[in-house]
Amino acid sequence: MSSQDQNAAQHPVERTPEQWSERLAEWDQPKYRGLQIFRWIHQRGVMDPNEMSDLPKALRAKLIEDGLASPVSIDLIRDAIDGTRKVLVALHDDRKIESVLIPRGSAAQQDIYTQELFEGQDDETPGVATPSVFSQCISTQVGCAMGCGFCASGIAGLKRNLTAAEIVSQVLIGKRELPQNARLAGIVFMGMGEPLHNYGPVAQALRLISHPEGIGLSLKRVTLSTSGLVEGIEKLGRDFGGAVNLAISLHAATDETRTRIMPINKRHPLSELMPALRAYPLPPRRRITIEYTLIEGVNDSHADARALVKLVRGMRVKVNLIPMNRVPDALVLPGSSGGLSGSEPKVVDAFQNELRGAGIDAFVRKRKGDDIAAACGQLALSGEKAKVRRLSVRPA
Ligand code: SAH
Ligand code: SF4
User: Fold this and answer.
1) 331 - beta bridge partners?
2) Which amino acids are annotated catalytic?
3) What are the tens digits of pLDDT across the range 51-110?
4) Ligand 1 center to residue 191 CA distance, Å?
5) Cα distance between residue 57 and residue 80, in whole Å
């Protein structure tokens, strides 16, 4: 594909300043206009050429002709009592995705999205809520192909990948929807979809989000969560030198249990995944986050906790324990009468104590905004008909 064809296929919102300059050269326009347009889009969140007041009229018309416009629009905004704001985003083909703005909570109610982004920062005052500082959870696909039995996105299956323009636009419209005087201090790729199953657009979105002439968010403030696509983890480490924080949805510490709830484990068992995590080029003082959703009677026993201790021994990790949120149509395992559900609080405590007793930092997290169905995947999918999947994942 020639560079011109690539430009033609690329949505204008996903161009870097250099790519803008190339495009402008094709139109015999001065190169510096590239940076000007990039700043309008990524610093000010303006995607309508008519609002780009310092550009000549003829260039604005050319930009409209070239397709510069927001690739997404806001369908619905829902606010939770705890300050979480969920934005339902409509795509051009009328599909819906979701993006969640999460205020940094007090130490007592820290949640999975914000805690790790602010850990150890100077502006942190333990126990004091700072509702003016937000992180944003964004989606990378409509639905997800990975088919995890406890996850609404997985149950629905993959509808399509998002483009880099659609991914970065979630941040651009998210910034506009922040309360007055609030700032966006971090981004987590923990919404719908498996980010490493849509690697190219996700990598381009990371470059755009961290571009100093645009949103300018350091990759240190970005966490990407994956179910464990080994090639993707390796590529992310190579392409970004370990700058992006990595969270891994482990959810089980033996292949037998992991395969029951996460089909990806058949393709990449723990014997492949763990070495890839150990090889991730973690900067000094950084840790990999292990996400472990506690599912009653499936992965929450003492033996499961001990297996986890053994699996992560010697690694720089911290563990986030999240009691599973009930989702409609969750997997029904053989021998069980109902779908998967979250572990009881006393089981969660015992699991945490087992880890802590072995010297592992383990935290119990909740998902904010439960009253607006803010567990990722649920709001956008409430309109999509989810397929009922029963017994489709068999024990190994
Ligand atoms: N696909 C990526 C990122 C999106 S999911 C991944 O799986 O890591 C973000 C997190 O929510 C993952 O850890 C996922 O396992 C978890 N999750 C999904 N459904 C859940 C549920 N019903 N209850 C609790 N956590 C859930
Ligand atoms: Fe996909 Fe992550 Fe849900 Fe698994 S947990 S189905 S990988 S979104």
Assistant:
1) none
2) 98, 376
3) 999 999 999 999 999 999 999 999 988 888 778 888 999 999 999 998 999 887 633 334
4) 8
5) 43
